[in-house]
Write a structure and sequence with these properties.
Structural class: alpha/beta
Number of domains: 2
Largest sheet: 4 strands, mixed
CATH architecture of the largest domain: Alpha-beta prism
Bound molecules: uridine-diphosphate-N-acetylglucosamine
Strand order of the largest sheet: 23-25-1-26
Shape: globular
Strand content: 25-35%
Length: 422
């Protein structure tokens, strides 16, 4: 461990009070930024979260020829002047999974793309065969080797594509590729995450024709190449960051307004929180959360939207670990996404992993120690868990948290939590 690196220190806290604003969604803004490759002009994105992944995506787009400029703390201008390179440099692509989202726009608009295998959180294998299969069905030629993916097509054609799994990234790449395909593309078993709806809405504002937005069957009528135009668009709020602040109140107790939390994007997870005993009610501009006492353990399984997102899982596991009873957790998306459990166990959690299941036996309290943030959401869950730990929880490798959380420490301390960044 490098002692020079920043760390987050958490002490047992609560009850929390006040209000917290939910920032824009990481998993939306990065895809909206990539979509600016589809048409020339100046785009302005508002409600952009101040997170490291936005900087990484800006760097990638800059390397491809898009110029970016901050107009304010949460307002980003991106100008596509038409002089675009179709080769995505390794050093940018390697840092975030969403870098793969430049593939569809580059291929459909400029006829080719050369991109290294994307990086991002390490949940074990993260294949892109569904992206590639869909693009090939539209007529693309794709060569892959250990280093990169090379795609080409003078003109993509509309196709009927049924995804064998409702993959977020594959849906987005096929969707953006279909924008300038000749004819109509149908994506069946499309992922339905709210962030895909946000992308569809921006594409429609740019001049695309998409039916079935929000459903598992997207129908895209292809347009003349280059006929779309730039837009101003506000990024939707981040349901995972909203869920993080709810989890913090659930664990530390208190009464907090989560401003900008959209209950319609979070129905199942709100239902699970309620089963645990957290009281959640609509408020004027978001949700009011109160947590009256010790939580009840719950069973849950992760699924594509509208199911319980895999990104919520570390939070729910942290909550289960201090609940009354035993909760059985099933991970259906990324079998390797249990690495943080070892860190929770260092804090005294009682968790046993069996394949893609985890059995979490609630303990009365955790005990602070040094832990490592293994990825974005798990890192945030360790911070939240630290609110229930006696003594001091020191979280290292917090660059993972910075990738997706806009001032987690500031927002939690604004609610009265004893959290500092050193
Ligand atoms: C996105 C999110 C991530 C979230 C995940 C699931 C971004 C940047 N990341 O990741 O935070 O946890 O959705 O909600 O938006 N799969 C294949 N072949 C493919 C593509 C995916 O087998 O071609 C599998 C994956 O291995 C995984 C499942 O499908 O088991 C879901 O992956 P996917 O929905 O594509 O997630 P990402 O887009 O990578």
């Amino acid at each position: 461990m490098n002692n020079e690196s920043p760390q987050i220190i958490v002490r047992r806290s609560g009850p929390l009070s006040g209000n917290v604003q939910v920032p824009g969604a990481k998993n939306s803004v990065l895809k909206l930024m990539a979509a600016t490759l589809l048409a020339e002009g100046e785009y302005v994105l508002t409600n952009v979260p101040a997170i490291a992944d936005v900087v990484t995506m800006s760097d990638l787009l800059t390397a491809l020829g898009i110029s970016t400029k901050w107009l304010g703390p949460h307002e980003l201008s991106l100008t596509n002047s038409g002089n675009i390179s179709t080769e995505a440099p390794f050093e940018n692509v390697d840092r975030i999974r969403a870098s793969i989202n430049v593939l569809g726009p580059l291929l459909t608009h400029y006829g080719q793309a050369l991109i290294n295998w994307p990086g991002g959180d390490d949940f074990g294998g993260r294949p892109i065969d569904l992206h590639i299969g869909g693009l090939e069905k539209m007529g693309a030629t794709i060569e892959q080797n250990l280093l990169n993916i090379r795609a080409s097509a003078d003109q993509l054609n509309g196709a009927e594509i049924e995804l064998s799994f409702a993959s977020v990234g594959a849906t987005e790449n096929i969707l953006t590729a279909a924008i300038y395909a000749k004819g109509t593309t149908v994506i069946d078993n499309a992922a339905r995450e709210p962030e895909i709806g946000d992308l569809c809405n921006m594409l429609v504002a740019m001049g695309a024709e998409i039916e079935g937005i929000g459903s598992s069957r997207l129908v895209v009528h292809g347009k003349q190449k280059g006929s779309l135009h730039s837009v101003r668009h506000s990024v939707i709020n981040d349901r995972v960051q909203a869920a993080t602040y709810i989890a913090a109140v659930a664990i530390a107790g208190g009464d907090v307004q989560i401003r900008g939390a959209k209950s319609e994007h979070m129905e199942m997870v709100i239902d699970k929180y309620s089963q645990m005993g957290v009281l959640i009610s609509p408020s004027r501009d978001g949700l009011r959360v109160t947590s009256p006492g010790r939580l009840n353990a719950i069973d849950f399984a992760t699924l594509p939207y509208p199911g319980i997102a895999t990104d919520y899982k570390p939070l729910l596991v942290a909550m289960n670990s201090v609940s009354n009873g035993v909760g059985i957790v099933t991970e259906n998306l990324f079998p390797g996404r249990f690495r943080y459990i070892e860190e929770l166990c260092k804090l005294g959690a009682d968790i046993r992993i069996d394949g893609h299941h985890a059995v979490v036996k609630g303990v009365e309290y955790l005990i602070g120690t040094s832990v490592i943030a293994p990825d974005i959401r798990a890192g945030a869950a360790l911070v939240v868990a630290g609110l229930a730990a006696h003594g001091e929880t020191v979280i290292s490798e917090i660059h993972h948290i910075d990738r997706g959380y806009d001032d987690l420490v500031g927002r939690l301390s604004g609610l009265g939590a004893d959290v500092t960044r050193v």
